[in-house]
Amino acid sequence: MTMDAYRYEDGTISYPGHPRGPDGAEPVETIDLSEFTAEVVTWTTSTATPPGVREPNHLAIVEFTIEGESVRAIGQVTTGEIEVGDEVRPVYVDELREPGAGIREPASQEWDGYRFEPV
Amino acid sequence: MERVAVIGSSMTQFGQRDEWVLELLSEAGLACLDDAGVDAADVKHLYVSNMASGEFEGQTGIMNALAQDIDATPAYTQRVDQTSSSGGAGIYAAWQSVASGASEMTLLVGGEKMTHRTTGEATDVIASLTHPVEYKHGVTLPSFAGLTARHYLDRFDAPRESLGKVAVKNHKNGVDNPHAQFRKEVDLETVLESPIVADPLRLYDFCPITDGSAALLLCPESVAQEYTDEYAVITGIDGATDTHVVHEREDPTVMGGVVESGEGAYEMSGREPDDIDVAELHDMFTILEFLQMEGLGFAEQGEAWELVEEGETERDGELPINTSGGLKSKGHPLGASGVAQGVEIYEQLVGEAGPRQVEADVGLCCNVGGFGNCVITTIMEAAQ
Lengths: 119, 384
Fold this sequence. Notes:
The complex is a heterodimer. Chain A is mainly beta. Chain A has a domain at 36-118. Chain A has no helices and eight strands. In chain A, the strands form two sheets. Chain A has a five-stranded antiparallel β-sheet, with no helix packed on it. A three-stranded antiparallel β-sheet of chain A has the order 2-1-3, with no helix packed on it. Chain A is globular, with a radius of gyration of 15 Å. Chain B contains 15 helices and eleven strands. In chain B, α1 crosses α3, α4 packs across α15 (334-349) and α8 packs across α12 (286-295). The model of chain B has no long low-confidence stretch (mean pLDDT 98). Chain A binds chain B through residues 14-16, 41-54, 57, 59-61, 72-76, 84, 96-97, 102-104, 108-111, 113, and chain B through 55, 119-121, 123-125, 127-128, 131-140, 142-143, 146-148, 150-151, 154, 195-201, 245-248, 252.
């Protein structure tokens, strides 16, 4: 499992990747964000969670800086003890929510991924 | 191109209803035709704004079913789904149908039936609009609101109470709306001490889950004048998108779809933010009222909260916002909400808003889909 972002021909990076980036730029490589640390931009603790989602669900938007280029990601956090500006690292989780408990077709997407853990 | 007029409106009781979606749509559709004095046989196009009747109820094909139920066949029908902005998108579709000359009488009915589902199930149906990288983390629309509210409050040094005052204001307005789900005032202390839903936002920062339907009737201005002297004209309308993946936006406090659709609507109408006398904004969460006020040019970035603190957005303020009670107290039956915004602005412009009436010649509504993923802004003016 990797946490793949796309780098586009104009140098920008996005997570997730898209077939086309800013101004129609095509992707030229993938970058595994799980190998980097990031900074918490903002966070919340959600207490009204849908079927199959842990409660409470700590979530954060974090920002990676890869060779001077910023890219953000959203994801679960391992703890509610977190502050804006904290440094976090991705840690692998084999099931972020229970597939099939919600409305989305289980086979339509992956359910493993990375939570952010304060460094 | 002839101007597009609105000559009728209706809105069912919003709240927890026994009726299912087809019954709600029929109730609003028939009431709207009755309000305008137009026969169903004269309806050429029928649009139904709805996000998820298939997911909520297992009922699809609702536009055709409605056409038969209100005896509007053989009118052309189309269901309009643009998530939470389906209603605004329906106004855009209905406007296009008349402006293009394809229809001389277009009925728009928005509706949703949600309350038979648990809060978790309804939240999941709505969250199904999210990207797979968001959905697998259990990201919901309320959690986007919590993330954005924390960032806004920290960055602009805005007091937490200012968000609470949006809820207090809109609940106060809803008391005078006979169709609102909640017709009860709340005080700031109640808002700030209610249970946390998505930290730092609490229960009263969020709209409820709602059943309901609303309708508008559109036609060319020359046709409108055959029916009434009291009508409104859609002078500006535009829709726009922002990134579907919310965290990819350069500035989390700017909704690009609001800015773009607002600029388009202003340009079409020749109006500016200062010209707007009354506005209905998509207050699905209190923080959204700030972001739309700023995106539409009613306030500078990071300063909308100051206008709320100063009472400028109260019913007797400089720019009354959400005189209907907003989604916050009126309720948010997804596909109906954007249409109901149009109903409120129409009623304000033709002087039918009763105890909620403000002095208004120009009104605006902004209907937000997803978390600003797609937005429709409409400017309506009283007929001159």
